[in-house]
Design goal:
By secondary structure, the protein is mainly beta. The strands form eight sheets. It has a 22-stranded antiparallel β-barrel. A five-stranded mixed β-sheet has the order 9-14-15-12-13, with no helix packed on it. The chain has a four-stranded mixed β-sheet with strand order 1-3-6-5. It starts with a strand and ends with a strand.
Length: 772
């Protein structure tokens, strides 16, 4: 018997309200363009459950509009697909393979199949692995978060919110726009130096970052976030050692017009006031063919750290604009996206005493992280799917630090501030084909990535005189041919094999303190393989091997010149289990990673960053989670993570007492309860969350190896909805913890004494949204 791929339906209350007339001759308007989307839309409109065996083909469908029964609509959608729909209950249908003409004896021997149980809601489809498949059948560890399903604080939701609601995601706690992101314990350094990131951040199909800090894209009008864990070198190339953080935006719908506006206010305990607003619009420009989606948002996040007379100085503003134009032409769809986000912090958030929220007067330390992005995407749907995508991203990151302490020996008399600027450009392009050929599903493609980075640093004295300290340029390219195929082996058992043949090249020019240049080319292969056992619907056990590579660069010698750095290589073996239990889902994954030639950014005595090969590491971890109902309209989420990330072979020039990799907590725990009520015409939702973040360390360097983490944080939120009106009230950090999220803020002062970055104090947020 084939495995059950998923069931499309509405909640039981909606199904129960359907009449026979609704199901037999309703007005049907199905505008979705792929078969899985169309089936889900039909289930919602007709208020029936539609089950499917196996994975539905991602073929295109024509629009259905007018009076039609469910049977007639299904027949039109499935015409020519080799599938048929059969009614198995008053409100239940099942899609199955069309019967062949077989001998009578063989037909009679086929066992009777029972109708699948009804499950509320459509299946979760993930695409981070470059193919659409139900989450329940995905043979890898992936977290999928739909922001619209949570009561949250609007524009303030970003990568920090995702990290708090998922497992294995860690952020350096320096603040929005300054953080580095890590997955599965693959952490190299808290510092934003020259090394490439270990996590690839993507917007839809285009990569946004290569070596830049996380831009903290705000999750406004976002369909879902997919966090694909473990090395992804086969599909994504260099710099995906830890995995993928992918934001999937909502596509324009050329079949309908809708608008949403939202406004919010926040109050930070012992801090300031903040405001936010957002607006989205979906506008059909040509009915069913051309649609435009517009998104705009702005927020002023309140500050809570005082510096001398500057109260709540670390306030920040974020402004974002996104437009996406979508064109439908038969089996083809084209999308053009333009996006920009400008994030500006007025001051840093570190202090000099644990638990404090103020520091002595010093120069303001503003931070900017501004990003602009353009992308084109062309897709052909059908038996053979074709995807051509290309995106270019410009990112500018600027920081200013007080230099009145810690800079006296660098060479500038009476230094006042240290200015540093980094400019990044990432151009990412890919051509990909995928198809199911009999029982084998395969994909293959060509990709090219070019990443350029320019960095400058200068000391400015009290009279405005400038002393340049750095002027660097680096260009990295990665060109590759990749492919992956999945085939059944035995009943319920399938195997996936993939590989990437790549050519990686970098050029580097450093003009200060002396001119030096370097370039290198590397050819290689990053393979992956997995076995997936699906003995019955709702159970999946998988064994996966994955690998990834990160370009080696160069490090600065004392007195000038460059030393070559070996490339990172990481290989992971992972065992996973996903099980449908008591109406929910239980997941368990355990992994072991061997990481060779760990590249790590380190802080030098002159407050400059350099990159070294720190040694070899081994990372072992376990994730365990359960999500599901525990009573009528009561839902729970429980998850825990343990990670042992250790440097097992050191190439550092000092002994290590603690070999744990930086910034990775030994353990994390989280839980969430969600309760829904219906109060007359109103829908009410209450969420209560609790999270524990274990202790971690800052650096390999014993001079600055300070502890961080080891705190508990809770949140409470309530949402009231009626029609298109949505009112929410959220309380974050209920216990008003002042725990240290990051013992680093100013590189010049770090060697002189302790620094602490407290987590945000108790904050209350009110938001009102209206859909039209």
């Amino acid at each position: 018997m084939m495995a059950l791929a998923g069931i499309w339906s509405l909640p039981a209350k909606a199904r129960g309200s359907a009449t026979d007339a609704d199901r037999s001759a309703g007005i049907i308007d199905i505008s979705a363009r792929t078969l899985p989307q169309a089936i889900a839309e039909l289930a919602r409109e007709a208020r029936v459950s539609i089950g499917a065996e196996g994975t539905l083909p991602n073929r295109s469908t024509n629009r259905i509009r007018g009076a039609a029964s469910v049977a007639e609509a299904l027949a039109q959608l499935l015409r020519g697909s080799g599938l048929v729909a059969r009614q198995v209950g008053p409100t239940a249908w099942r899609i199955e393979t069309a019967p062949s003409i077989v001998p009578l004896q063989a037909a009679a021997a086929d066992p009777v199949r029972m109708a699948p149980p009804e499950i509320a809601g459509p299946p979760i489809i993930v695409t981070a692995a470059k193919r659409a498949e139900p989450l329940a059948q995905a043979p890898y560890d992936v977290t999928v978060i739909a922001p619209a399903d949570h009561v949250a604080a609007g524009v303030s939701r970003g990568s920090g919110w995702v990290a708090a609601n998922s497992d294995g995601v860690a952020l350096a706690g320096s603040g929005p726009g300054r953080n580095r992101m890590f997955l599965r314990g693959v952490a190299d350094s808290p510092f934003n130096g020259d090394s490439a990131s270990t996590v690839a951040v993507l917007l839809d199909d285009a990569r946004l970052t290569f070596s830049a800090p996380d831009p903290d894209i705000r999750l406004i009008d976002v369909e879902r976030v997919e966090v694909l864990k473990g090395p992804q070198g086969t599909l994504y190339g260099t710099g995906a050692l830890g995995g993928i953080y992918r934001i999937v935006t909502r596509a324009p719908d050329a079949g309908r017009e809708d608008y949403t506006v939202a406004f919010g206010l926040e109050r930070v305990g012992q801090g300031g006031l903040g405001q936010s607003g957002s607006a989205t619009a979906n506008v059909p420009l040509a009915q069913d063919r051309l649609g435009l989606r517009l998104v705009g948002y702005a927020a002023r996040d309140a500050g809570w750290v005082d510096s001398g007379a500057r109260a709540n100085g670390n306030s920040a503003t974020t402004v974002g604009l996104r437009t996406r134009l979508g064109l439908e032409a038969g089996d083809w769809r084209a999308d053009a996206t333009a996006f920009g986000q400008w994030l500006n912090s007025a001051d840093s958030a570190y202090v000099y005493q644990h638990g404090a929220r103020s520091r002595p007067a010093q120069a303001a330390e503003p931070h900017d992280n501004d990003l602009r992005h353009l992308a084109l995407r062309l897709e052909r749907r059908g038996d053979t799917q074709i995807l051509l995508s290309s995106g270019v991203t410009w990112q500018e990151v600027r920081d200013r630090f007080d230099a009145t302490q810690g800079a006296a020996g660098i060479g500038q008399a009476d230094p006042a501030v240290l200015d540093q600027a980094r400019r990044y450009r990432v151009w990412d392009s890919e051509l990909r084909l995928s198809r199911s050929t009999g029982p084998i599903t395969w994909l293959g493609g060509l990709s090219h990535l070019e990443a350029e980075q320019r960095a400058s640093r200068a000391l400015v004295d009290t009279n405005g005189g400038t002393l340049p300290l750095a002027d660097d340029r680096r260009v990295a390219t990665d060109s590759a041919l990749f492919g992956e195929a999945k085939a059944p082996l035995l009943a319920g058992l399938s195997a996936t094999l993939g590989a990437r043949l790549f050519r990686s090249h970098f050029e580097e020019l450093r003009q200060l303190p002396a001119t030096a240049s370097r370039d290198a080319t590397k050819w290689g292969i990053t393979p992956n393989a997995s076995l997936a056992w699906n003995p019955r619907p709702g159970r999946l056990v998988y064994l996966r091997y994955g690998s990834a590579f990160r370009q080696g660069g160069s490090s600065l010698r004392d007195g000038g010149g460059l030393n070559d750095l070996a490339s990172d290589e990481l290989a992971t073996t992972e065992l996973g289990w996903r099980e449908a239990v008591a109406g929910g889902t239980l997941t368990l994954s355990a992994w072991n990673s061997n990481w060779e030639n760990v590249q790590s950014d380190v802080l030098l005595a002159n407050a400059r960053f350099s990159t070294i090969n720190a040694g070899d590491a081994r990372i072992t971890g376990v994730d365990l989670g359960w999500s599901g109902p525990i009573g009528p309209r009561l839902h729970a989420e429980l998850a825990g993570n343990y990670t042992a990330a250790l440097l097992v072979s050191s190439r550092l020039d000092h002994d290590l007492e603690d070999r744990h990799l930086p910034l990775i907590p030994h353990a994390t725990l989280r839980g969430r309860l969600i309760r829904d009520w219906t109060l007359g015409a109103f829908d009410l939702r209450l969420e209560l969350g609790l999270r524990y973040v274990g202790q971690a360390r800052l650096s390999f360097d014993p001079q600055i190896d300070y502890p961080l983490g080891d705190y508990v944080e809770g949140d409470l939120a309530v949402r009231l909805r009626r029609g298109g009106m949505d009112l929410s009230l959220a309380l974050a950090n209920i216990g008003n913890s002042g725990a240290d999220a990051m013992p680093f803020g100013n590189p010049l002062r770090l060697l002189l004494g302790r620094q602490f970055t407290p987590i945000r104090p108790r904050t209350i947020t009110l938001q009102v949204a209206k859909a039209f």
